[in-house]
């Protein structure tokens, strides 16, 4: 490749034994993507269709599932094309755009989970204030901030990465992420690394601390109330808590795996770990809400089995 001119394409080197298992990988990935689309759209449709679900808690659920569709669509169509291609390449602009979308998805997920924790916290700990504290105008503001702020942070990171001159063109990944793009540069990347650390801290720790605080308060209130109150509170909080733990664990695996690049982890395992945060949560979220919240579960059954 000519290093004197601006390059056009990057090579994605993360695929494992693609020549032997190409079609198996493709079929498995296609099934997963179709399941993600189907599961999430069913729950979103039920919430949109039924007026009794037009409440803050269910609107936040629908927003979380829409975000799952956004993150999945940023990854899977390109991955499916690569699995059937002889060469797995991506243009630099497309790579930056995918990195932007995946970062915005991950950061938005944490903010949406924080908004949902706020909704549950006020509902259980201050029920008399709920109508005023969680109005529809408040819900709209929280949803706007949950997508706007991550897009701004991701946009700055991608703009900084786009200014770097690169002297390497092989990404040891199956998709593009900002940190991997920055590592291809032959220039000092301190600014990118400092900014990356900064947005990682503000994107992760405030939401996690707030969610943990909210659930400590919720647990305290539950312990002081009746068994029936605890059952109803946990019924609405448990899905959210499971989803928060699931996404946090998967995102932590991705961050640690990408930065440490341990030689002790087999390459195929490292690639699987790197995909988990856009594989498991988008599949896990609609299933959890469809099974754990009885109101949604009943309507999903009516749609799937056409019962009245």
Task: Itemize the secondary structure elements and their pairings.
Blueprint (H helix, E strand, L loop, with lengths): L8 E4 L5 H32 L6 H29 L4 E3 H34 L4 H4 L2 H27 L7 E2 L6 H5 L7 H34 L3 H34 L6 H9 L4 H13 L1 H12 L3
Parallel strand pairs: 1-3
Antiparallel strand pairs: 1-2
Taking the alpha carbons of the first and last residues, their distance comes to 64 Å
Number of β-strand runs: 3
Stretches where pLDDT is under 50 for at least 5 consecutive residues are 1-6
Beta content comes to: under 5%
Strand order of the largest sheet: 2-1-3
Question: How is the biggest beta sheet arranged?
Answer: 3 strands, mixed
Order of helices and strands: EHHEHHHEHHHHHH
Note the overall shape.
Answer: globular
Counting H and I runs of at least 4 residues, what is the number of helices? 11
Rounded to an integer in angstroms, the radius of gyration calculated over CA atoms is: 21 Å
Name the helicity range.
over 70%
**Averaged pLDDT:** 84
Structural class: mainly alpha
Protein described:
- With 308 residues, the chain is mostly helical.
- It has eleven helices and three strands.
- The protein has a three-stranded mixed beta sheet.
- Helix 8 packs across helix 9.
In short:
The protein is 76% helix and 3% strand.
């Amino acid at each position: 490749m000519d290093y004197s001119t601006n390059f056009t394409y990057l090579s994605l080197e993360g695929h494992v034994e693609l020549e032997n298992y190409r079609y198996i990988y493709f079929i498995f990935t296609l099934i997963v993507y179709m399941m993600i689309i189907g599961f999430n759209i069913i729950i979103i449709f039920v919430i949109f269709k039924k007026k009794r679900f037009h409440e803050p808690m269910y609107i936040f659920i629908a927003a979380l599932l829409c975000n799952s569709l956004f993150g999945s669509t940023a990854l899977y169509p390109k991955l499916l094309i690569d699995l059937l291609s002889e060469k797995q390449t991506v243009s630099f602009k497309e790579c930056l755009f995918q990195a932007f979308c995946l970062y915005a998805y991950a950061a938005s997920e944490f903010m949406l989970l924080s908004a949902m924790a706020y909704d549950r916290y006020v509902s259980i700990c201050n029920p008399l204030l709920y109508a005023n504290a969680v109005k529809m105008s408040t819900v709209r503001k929280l949803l706007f901030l949950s997508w706007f702020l991550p897009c701004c942070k991701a946009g700055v990171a991608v703009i900084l990465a786009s200014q770097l001159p690169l002297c390497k063109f092989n990404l040891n990944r199956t998709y593009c992420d900002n940190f991997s793009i920055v590592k291809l540069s032959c220039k000092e990347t301190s600014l990118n690394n400092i900014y990356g650390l900064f947005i990682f801290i503000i994107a992760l720790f405030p939401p996690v601390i707030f969610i943990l605080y909210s659930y400590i308060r919720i647990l305290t209130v539950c312990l002081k109330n009746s068994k029936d109150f605890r059952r109803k509170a946990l019924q609405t909080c448990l899905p959210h808590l499971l989803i928060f733990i699931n996404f946090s664990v998967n995102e932590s695996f991705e961050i640690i795996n990408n930065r440490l690049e341990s030689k002790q982890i087999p390459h195929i395992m490292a690639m699987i770990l790197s995909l988990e945060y856009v594989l498991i949560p988008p599949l896990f979220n609609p299933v959890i809400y469809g099974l754990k919240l009885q109101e949604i579960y009943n309507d999903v059954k009516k749609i799937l089995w056409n019962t009245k």
